[in-house]
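Q: Please design a sequence for this.
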């Protein structure tokens, strides 16, 4: 049976990296029916619609899963972030950012393998803001709820247990933000005993940032509130080569949106210089979510293999290949990997 998935190419380099990723997904042999949505963000606004048309949300609700490219968000003006709006409209409370080294890609460390779990709907991104025009004072409220804290922390522990991770680290600022961050920490301490097979620790956020850039190999699963998670997940991406090679997912109880977390890079759109790696790795996460585990592994290993031999890479990581050339190379590796998996399954049978 085909998986019906909402497809959002995005803008800027989005359509290029999406086409490249679809070529790789096609090589897995998994059957997809794509519900393609073109008008979103800038394209929708130019057509006289809302930046996030209700039809986009309806499609994701109906299909349950979306694969999304980058969408431009104006800085300080224009419409608000489409990414944030989707997360809040669909209650996609768990943002996941795996940060894992790619072989052959030179980075400060070669043993990074961790996942940042960011609460995705509350905190300082909850949208509770006030501005006093007379006094020129701006207030933003970091709204943290017990229910919201419980579900992201438990989501992290469940993931750790399911994937065999040894440790969960909760990052907070409870020494200063005693009510909001203090509640998050309190909930973590209450939940941790339910998972005796997973080591638990907490760290103050500034120390956590320092530890991640000095001893990243000591961390497995890191869970934290919205703003802190936004910062730590980018920090983690920087440890493994940047946002251009890092996958991301937003998951709720009913829907999941898998997206490239990098920007739309309109300055290089159409020039054949975009790197599809992040979206390809994101597609691997989507395959796992759909229980297509063999295909997910084939995509992961194909990308790693391409970086390991270093012969066909995009310009930002030292190569000269276009997005399509890189995709063709990875797709060939995926097909070979899928064939080996199928042969192994036949032998076991």
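A: Design:
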């Amino acid at each position: 049976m085909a998986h019906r998935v909402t497809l959002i190419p995005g803008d800027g380099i989005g359509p290029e990296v999406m086409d490249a990723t679809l070529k790789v997904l096609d090589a897995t042999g998994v059957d997809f029916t794509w519900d393609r949505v073109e008008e979103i963000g800038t394209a929708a606004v130019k057509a006289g619609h809302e930046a996030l048309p209700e039809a986009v949300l309806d499609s994701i609700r109906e299909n349950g899963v979306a694969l999304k490219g980058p969408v431009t968000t104006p800085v300080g003006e224009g419409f608000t972030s489409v990414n944030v709006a989707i997360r809040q409209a669909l209650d996609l409370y768990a943002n996941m950012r795996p940060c894992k080294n790619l072989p052959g890609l030179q980075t400060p460390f070669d043993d990074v393998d961790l996942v940042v779990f960011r609460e995705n709907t509350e905190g300082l991104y909850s949208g509770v803001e006030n501005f006093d025009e007379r006094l020129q004072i701006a207030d933003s409220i970091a709204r943290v709820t017990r229910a919201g804290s419980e579900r992201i922390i438990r989501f992290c522990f469940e993931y750790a247990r399911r994937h065999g991770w040894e440790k969960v680290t909760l990052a907070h600022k409870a020494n200063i933000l005693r009510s909001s961050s203090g509640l998050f920490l309190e909930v973590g301490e209450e939940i941790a005993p339910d998972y005796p097979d997973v080591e638990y620790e907490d760290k103050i956020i500034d120390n956590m940032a320092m530890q991640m850039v000095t001893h990243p190999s000591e961390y497995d699963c890191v869970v934290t509130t919205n703003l802190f998670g936004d910062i730590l997940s980018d920090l983690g991406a920087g440890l493994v080569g940047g946002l251009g090679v890092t996958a991301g997912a937003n998951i709720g109880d009913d829907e999941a949106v898998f997206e490239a977390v990098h920007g739309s890079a309109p300055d290089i759109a159409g020039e054949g210089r975009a790197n599809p790696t992040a979206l390809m790795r994101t597609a691997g996460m989507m395959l796992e979510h759909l229980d297509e585990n063999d295909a997910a592994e084939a995509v992961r290993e194909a990308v790693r293999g391409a970086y390991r031999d270093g012969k066909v890479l995009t310009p930002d990581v030292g190569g000269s290949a276009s997005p399509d050339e890189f995709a063709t190379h990875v797709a060939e590796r995926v097909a070979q990997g899928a064939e080996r998996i199928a042969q192994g399954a036949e032998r076991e049978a």
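Q: Thanks. Anything notable?
A: The mean pLDDT is 93. The longest strand covers residues 94-100.
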